[in-house]
Design goal:
190 residues; mainly alpha; two-stranded antiparallel ribbon; 10 helices; globular
């Protein structure tokens, strides 16, 4: 390859697709313009799964769980066990494992390529894993607390009064999560 060819093509080196990559690419752990752009991708993906469709799907197959139901409705061919592994390592303070890193790589391969849209899809599935707690405890928040950094110190924030967050970081899938939980719970009441 001569210099002319090298200067007209500027590929970047491949990145390692793992938990650190995922956290660096999702809206959940972003701020400013990155957050706005990445949140828009999540909302676009959620538009492909109407809450009523999710409610009906969850009622029809409550045993499969919210992750599998959301994946099915969105047409994502993934292994829910991989999503579970990622969910257990999603927060930086959770135990990090090689299994979670490998699961991220498999999910990215199944859903696209290592870019922000694919990260948004993986993030949606990981967030759906928290919906399981809504099914187990419909009165409580899906996630009881979250963490924020204030002046270099980690602060635990109780989500009891704001179960889906508030402001720009409010969960864009609140209606979807509630529909998944309501559908699963409706089948147990029949």
């Amino acid at each position: 390859m001569d210099s002319r060819e090298l200067l007209t093509d500027a590929p970047v080196p491949p990145v390692e697709v793992n938990m650190a990559w995922l956290r660096a690419m999702v809206a959940r752990f972003s701020s400013g313009e990155d957050h706005t752009r990445r949140r828009k991708l999540v909302i676009e993906e959620l538009a492909n799964a109407e809450p009523e469709t999710l409610r009906q799907a969850a009622a029809a197959k409550p045993h499969q769980g919210p992750v599998a139901t959301l994946a099915e409705v969105l047409g994502f061919d993934v292994d829910p066990a991989d999503v579970d592994k990622v969910a257990k390592a999603y927060q930086p303070h959770f135990p990090q494992t090689a299994e979670a890193d490998k699961a991220v790589a498999r999910l990215v391969e199944a859903l696209g390529r290592p870019d922000e849209r694919t990260a948004a899809k993986v993030g949606l599935l990981v967030q759906a894993a928290a919906t399981e707690s809504l099914i187990e405890n419909p009165q409580g928040p899906p996630v009881p607390t979250t963490r924020r950094w204030v002046d270099g110190a980690e602060v635990i924030v109780d989500l009891k009064d704001f179960p889906f967050g508030i402001g720009p970081h409010a969960c864009p899938g609140e209606a979807h999560a509630k529909a998944l939980a309501e559908g699963a719970l409706s089948s147990t009441r029949q």
